[in-house]
Amino acid sequence: MPFSPTKRNGTFMGIAFVAIISITASLLSETSTLKNLGISPLVVGIVIGIIFANTLHHKMPSSWETGITFSAKKILRFAIVFYGFRITFQQIAEVGLEGFLVSLIMLASTFILGTWLGTKVFKMEEDTSILIASGASVCGAAAVLATEPVVKAEEHKTAIAVSMVVLFGTIAMFLYPVLHTSGILDMTAREFGIYVGGTIHEVAQVVAVPASVPGLDAEAANAAVIVKMTRVIMIAPMLIVLGIYLSYQAKKTGGAGATVKLVIPWFAVYFIGVAGFNSLNLVPLDIVNWINQIDTFLLTMAMVALGIGTRFAKFKGLGLAPIYTALSMFIWLVVGGYFITKFICYTF
């Protein structure tokens, strides 16, 4: 137990150490360069954690490991639950059936495609494929973090998935404005907003793209953010379905006599509950903003802790498979997402 009398001091020191690095990551993310690129403190945190893990980790007292693990597991689940304060059901209703359908189709198709390509075509382990697919299909690094406890993946696999999200999400930030201003996309402001929200990885990147297009009205930005948040809330049912699937697979692999306990990711259920509570508008907006800032910091702590558990030696043998998988999903999001958005907006 991390807070047993013999481990308590080490656990607190480990948590404090993670918190200090997270403060540093938060401050760095506020610099103009990183802010303009839409790089969140979560990404900065895992990068710092990985650098520490592969340079100075041996100098950290071993007793602190319980605090690192607590940050990567328990604090993570708590932060995912309170991520629900970023969403209201009214926002989802605002964007209409078109936004909902684009979100649903792109999430499901990208997740299934990425998992299948990763495992069957590029021969990666299933948990790595699922993590990369969840990051691309839902909401970037936060989705990877939320999926990690369900698949019970190792820290370095989470780091791989986050790095893929950062790489292709950053490419998307520069590509989408060029595609729109060049006239290649031939989309209205609302259609472009739905397209951006339904296909780009991170929330911060979705916010940044419409702002990068000269003369684009607020309708595009609003549609993009609302569609993106619709994708975010879909992570809860996705994780529940994933948990059921993994339990079925384990039972199937274990043979006819095997009994496997169904593990429901309750933090995903609580996440929906918090979003529903937030939809009632009972909490003042300034307090909600304050909660979201704290939640971002807790998510950053989880990312730092995961980074600290990542050693480059564990990456050996993966080769270019993660990049091929993430690239395939990126092409599907850009090209397939365009045609799906146009079709749905035309039909409805």
UniProtKB/TrEMBL annotation:
Record's GO cellular component terms: plasma membrane
Predominant subcellular localization, coarse grouping: membrane
Membrane topology: Multi-pass membrane protein
Pfam family, one: Cons_hypoth698
Keyword presence, Cell membrane: yes
Domain of life: Bacteria
Residue spans crossing the bilayer: 12-28, 34-54, 99-118, 130-147, 159-180, 192-213, 225-246, 258-278, 290-309, 321-340
Location(s) in or outside the cell: Cell membrane
InterPro entries: UPF0324_pro (IPR018383), UPF0324_YeiH-like (IPR004630)
Keywords for the protein's UniProt record, in alphabetical order: Cell membrane, Membrane, Transmembrane, Transmembrane helix
Family listed: Belongs to the UPF0324 family.
Protein name (database record): Membrane protein YeiH
Organism of derivation: uncultured Sulfurovum sp
